[in-house]
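Work through what follows:
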Amino acid sequence: MSDPRYGTILAGRVYVCTLTLVAESSARRSRSLLVRVIAILVLLAAWWLAALAKIWPPAILPSPGQVWHQLLSTSDAANGQGGYAGSTLVERLGVSLRRVGYGCVYGIVIGVVLGLAMGLIPVVRAITEPAVTFLRALPPLAYLSLLVIWFGIDEEPKVYLLMVAAFPPVAVAAAAAVSGVNRQYVEAAQALGANRFEVIRAVILPASAPEILTGIRLAVGIAYSSVVAAETVNGADGIGGMVLNAQRYNQTAVVILGLFVIGITGLVIDSLIVAAQRALSPWRGRV
């Protein structure tokens, strides 16, 4: 007869091991965060010292204090300019994020559907893969003028530009993910009586999710980096419009502020996608 204390001892050891692993993981995250904070502080200090040394004139390299002043000024609707040229920084960011959101949603939906078709149907892949690769190789500015000719200078060309920029990475990632699904999983599902739709829903999509989410991450990054290009055409109400307007008047501090806003919000969006990827595919990298 086994000792009843054995189960209690084993549970205690498992609990201690779990706490140890959690503590080690927390320590690693803390060290990583500390390293990132130190790196940012070093860059800010180097920037500040370069501005104080006046290696370049303030019109070329404004100090961090000047950029901070522009942040406060452009965020104040009562500063006499309505923020910056009639719109506050938050309003401009909202306009740009709305455009990126619409473009990415349309692009991701098209990319996932097309990628699944490319991965499941060889004929579709043979027909569409050259066009997808062609679009993926083009920089967004290359077809912006054509979109303006087709759709005018309102919202449509901006959203379509971001959509076209977003869907090729998703389509390529989805097609590669579907093609790489283990055939044994599909055959096992078919042996249990699953039809084609059930196999796609219960086997192929979950198995392909990590790679598809990686493609979505790349697509959102490309689309967000293209928002300034999308707003070169009648986009004065967005962040890109603010950057371009400030560039015309040599307002370097405003330009740098706009770039920081785009970069920081891009990092936040990317972090959210990574968190979603970990939540939807927690096994990734562990098996």
Summary: The chain has two domains: 1-55, 69-280. Residues 69-280 form a domain with the MetI-like fold fold (CATH 1.10.3720.10).
